[in-house]
Amino acid sequence: MILDLFTRCVLISLLAFGGGGAALPLIERIAVAETGWVSPQDFATAVAFGSITPGPVLITMTFLGYRVAGLVGAFAATCGIFLMPWALAAAAAHLLRRWMQHPLLHHFGRGAAPAVVGLLVVTALHLGRSTFASGIHIGMAGVALGLALWTKLHPLVLLLGGAVIGALYGLVMEGKTL
Amino acid sequence: MVQTSSPASGRPVLALGYIFLRIGAAAFGGLGASLALIERELVTKRQWLTVADVTAALTYTKLLPGSTGPQVVAYLGYTLGGWCGSAVATAAFLFPAALIMLVLAAAYVSVTSVPVMQPALNGLTAAIVGILLATTYRMGKANIPDRLTLGIALASVVAGAVLGISAAVIVVLAGLVGVGLYAVPLWKQAAEEDTR
Q1: What pTM was computed for the model?
Q2: B26 inside 8 A of chain A by CB
Q3: Which of A21, A65, B36, B180 is the most buried (most CB within 10 A)?
Q4: Where are the domains of chain A?
Q5: What does the CA dihedral B87, B90, B91, B93 come to, rounded to 10 degrees?
Q6: Structural domain spans, chain B
Q7: Residue of A8, A96, A101, A120 to mutate for B, most B C-beta atoms under 10 A
Q8: Torsion A17-A20-A21-A25 (CA) sign
Q9: Which residues pair with A124 in a beta bridge?
């Protein structure tokens, strides 16, 4: 289990052409859709926390690793997701420009990056399908999209707003209690 | 590139760890914030690096798979202190965020047992979907310059959402398509020039 978690994280990190955001749909596909390790909601919460903490968004994996297998899982997942990218970057500094501008790597990235963009859409669809209880959630997602695109609001504000409106909706419409 | 520092100039590893620990704890807002802090701490304040070093780190690590922020740190860590400096700098940079995530993960179970948390998390997820789509739009603008790449993106949506093909397979296939379509014409061109 731990080894599986580690190797899958290594695999995800090696396929994340285009930065940390590119790994998010891969994490969702692998940890939620393909293995069922965590629920879609666990994933969404982890991404939310990952984007409001300092540092890279992929620290999300520390949270998910903990959800999968406790402290050891958190450690294995964190190492897995950052080990190879670290080794590659340090090696790049070591070899400097000799290999880095190799056209094959460049072309591979040119093809892989748009696929990752497509997978982001799949992840958004998947998250939406599993958590949208009503039209109001679709509306909220639309508002969040607009605000994220056209304003400089910090993501933290959007996430907090979403949580507060969701809680109010639960209290009023679904009769949940505090 | 004239002004780049020579590799492994041998800065004290402990000092590197401390500097990147502080950067890692303050880098709210991802790559942009990390770069700004690195520049302030290591270029402006200490002058251990030049702007050209930071630019080179960003340029080369962007070509590599993985999270760009920690990779810039890994690259610059190597420039400042070799393999050991790179490992210490990267680990220190990641440590604050990892610690916060651990605490949040440990508290998560007790927090989610409160009934009102369920709708609150649904609202949070709705916001996440919106933010994800905004990210998709920005990444799409940067990575989909022509019809070919647009085709790859649309095909991967269908492959993932409809056909349920594994994400890893999709990315590797798309990369190979990129190599095939962009690289082969170049080789042919080069071969023709050689024979001439």
Answers
A1: 0.75
A2: yes
A3: A65
A4: 2-131, 134-178
A5: 150
A6: 13-111, 115-143, 145-196
A7: A120
A8: positive
A9: none
Q: How many CA atoms lie within 13 A of B121 on its CB side?
A: 23
Nearest to A89 by CA among B59, B100, B32, B196: B59
Type of residue numbered B111: V
Q: Which amino acid, one-letter code, is at B27?
A: A
ipTM of the complex model: 0.74
Under an 8 A CB cutoff, do A54 and B33 touch? yes
Closest chain A residue to B133 measured between Cα atoms? A145
Query: For A17, phi and psi rounded to 5 degrees?
Result: -75, 125
Q: What is the pLDDT of residues A58-94, one digit of tens each?
A: 999 999 999 999 999 999 999 999 999 999 999 988 8
- For chains A and B, CB pairs below 8 A equal 422
Question: Which uninterrupted H or E stretch holds B183?
Answer: none
Q: What 3-state DSSP class applies to A17? A: strand
Q: How far apart are CA A144 and CA A49, in angstroms?
A: 17
Residue B121: how many other CB atoms lie within 10 Å: 24
B71 neighbors A88 (Cβ within 8 angstroms): yes
Contact B136 A120 (CB under 8 A): yes
Place of tokens 């949940």: A176
pLDDT in tens, B69-93: 899 999 999 999 999 999 999 999 9
Give yes or no for B5 touching A (CB within 8 A).
no
